[in-house]
User: Which sequence fits this backbone?
């Protein structure tokens, strides 16, 4: 078998906000890599057997004696090492070069110029004498390179912007090749991963799918597997993958909680129907559970957002558990856990200051059901999950659908959830999304939705005054959903959506657009 994990890079995390981006760029070159914290042991690294190592940036200063250090032997393994920003400074300091804290932080765009020909930097085009655009974000500077190193690039304010010791295969760049502001930064990382570390491009959607199929088959044998299918990208891709791997040993359970978006249930059913071609030889087995009343009954009279979330989560577990028990011989529960979830929960064990989302896929289920877990997306970033989804034949509209929270419309109806409110919200949300698609704006925003505000606001219809409820529209732009800003949608567009909502939905008299940023506001309203 073509083992796609044989060639791999190790990314040592010093806490930079860009560490995951480094890994994503390396994967985009077709090379597998994994992120581990800086305090890994030498044995771990030997066992991991990387073809190359990348040291990430980080918020600290190497001039402070207490801060993170590279396990020194990493620099003596004979494996190529690339230090980025803090990674370069740590390399310089630990190999007896000199690093100083400067009074002025260099942040933002800068131009680098080549000093001597470099194996690594030849990936960049220096033919323009203006230099190459790079992204800088550092306070400290390397003042003297260690013995054996040469300076390969400089900027007007950093005389040592890159360095290398080609004999020992050690490289350092002060700038961030992983961010898109650095011109051809991806080419530089590719030069490192492929030419310098000698990795081929085996990490492709087709190979990832083949590998996942083989592993799932080995893991579950002839056992039955269940999966909670939500219509979101991750669970849909797991379903499509398992359909290929284990055919009719998989049963998906789709719970209609009454808090879904317009036509969501029909879309999921269509995506996995016999005609869709997503399964292997058979249509996917999907059990749809109509549990709208059960959810709405439990939510009756409940206004507190956290209580609502808890009720929705617990009811989901009840319903899922009940349905699963009806299926003979189930031994495994499949989940759409993805790599960022794995990194974040590992980082929290190390006490790092990562922000951890409080929600989880189907939290509580595995313990309660005493099933083994099948998590075929555990190694993948979201963009890789999407590529695999397309490779497996899932429709573009499903693969690139905006995220939707587990509690669904339950956290988009402020206060008490009622079936009538949910119906109105579905309609308003659908109008907004439909117009975004028509105006070619849907894929330009990261997430967009409507929120139901059950406050009475006056409207005039004919000669009569009416007090009706309000819809808020929310659209955000974000990279990681940890911070976000409201999308600058054209005024005419928002006005068009507002007119349609008010004209087409009797019980809405007013539409507002939410312009708050996260932080301090969150993306969802509850
Ligand atoms: P907030 O509102 O925290 O949302 O800024 C960040 C992102 O997470 C989604 N979200 C959830 N997703 N279960 C989920 O699966 C949840 O309970 C949940 N709450 C928020 C939200 O839609 C946004 O994309």
Assistant:
């Amino acid at each position: 078998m073509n083992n796609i994990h044989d060639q791999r890079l190790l990314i040592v995390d010093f806490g930079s906000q860009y560490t995951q981006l480094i890994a994503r760029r390396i994967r985009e070159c077709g090379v597998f890599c994994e992120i581990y914290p800086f305090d890994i042991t030498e044995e771990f690294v030997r066992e991991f057997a990387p073809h190359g190592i990348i040291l990430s940036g980080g918020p600290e200063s190497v001039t402070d004696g207490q801060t993170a250090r590279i396990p020194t032997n990493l620099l003596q393994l004979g494996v190529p090492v690339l230090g980025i920003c803090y990674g370069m400074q740590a390399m310089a300091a630990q190999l007896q070069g000199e690093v100083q804290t400067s009074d002025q932080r260099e942040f933002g765009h800068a131009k680098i110029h080549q000093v001597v020909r470099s194996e690594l930097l030849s990936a960049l085009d220096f033919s323009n004498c203006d230099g190459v655009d790079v992204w800088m974000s550092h306070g400290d500077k390397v003042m003297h390179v260690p013995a054996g190193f040469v300076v390969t690039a400089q900027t007007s304010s950093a005389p040592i912007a890159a360095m290398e010791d080609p004999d020992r295969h050690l490289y350092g760049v002060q700038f961030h090749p992983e961010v898109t502001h650095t011109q051809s930064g991806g080419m530089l990382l590719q030069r490192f991963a492929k030419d310098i570390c000698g990795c081929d491009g085996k990490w492709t959607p087709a190979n990832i799918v083949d590998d996942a199929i083989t592993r799932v088959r080995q893991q579950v044998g002839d056992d039955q597997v269940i999966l909670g299918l939500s219509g979101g990208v991750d669970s849909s891709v797991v379903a499509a993958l398992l359909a290929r791997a284990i055919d009719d040993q998989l049963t998906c359970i789709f719970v209609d909680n009454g808090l879904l978006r317009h036509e969501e249930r029909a879309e999921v059913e269509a995506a996995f129907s016999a005609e869709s071609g997503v399964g292997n030889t058979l249509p996917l087995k999907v059990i749809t559970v109509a549990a709208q009343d059960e959810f709405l009954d439990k939510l009756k009279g409940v206004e507190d957002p956290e209580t609502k979330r808890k009720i929705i989560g617990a009811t989901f577990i009840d319903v899922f558990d009940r349905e699963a028990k009806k299926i003979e011989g189930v031994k495994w529960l499949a989940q759409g856990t993805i790599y960022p979830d794995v990194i974040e929960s590992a980082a929290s064990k190390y006490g790092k200051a990562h922000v951890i989302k409080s929600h989880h896929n189907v939290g509580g289920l595995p313990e309660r059901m005493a099933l083994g877990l099948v998590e075929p997306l555990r190694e993948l970033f979201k963009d890789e999950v999407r590529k695999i989804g397309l490779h497996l034949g899932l429709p573009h509209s499903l693969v690139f659908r905006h995220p939707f929270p587990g509690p669904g419309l339950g956290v988009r109806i402020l206060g008490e959830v009622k079936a009538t409110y949910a119906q109105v919200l579905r309609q308003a949300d659908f109008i907004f999304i439909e117009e975004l698609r028509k105006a070619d704006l849907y894929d330009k925003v990261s997430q967009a939705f409507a929120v139901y505000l059950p406050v009475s606001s006056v409207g005039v219809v004919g000669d009569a005054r009416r007090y009706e409820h309000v819809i808020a529209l929310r659209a955000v732009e974000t990279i990681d959903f940890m911070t976000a800003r409201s999308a600058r949608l054209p005024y005419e567009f928002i006005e068009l959506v507002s007119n349609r909502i008010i004209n087409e939905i009797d019980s809405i008299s007013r539409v507002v657009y939410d312009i708050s940023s996260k932080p301090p506001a969150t993306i969802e309203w509850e």
The domain at 205-399 is CATH 3.40.50.620 (Rossmann fold). Residues 359, 403, 405-407, 447, 481, 518, 522-524 surround xanthosine-5'-monophosphate (CB under 6 Å).
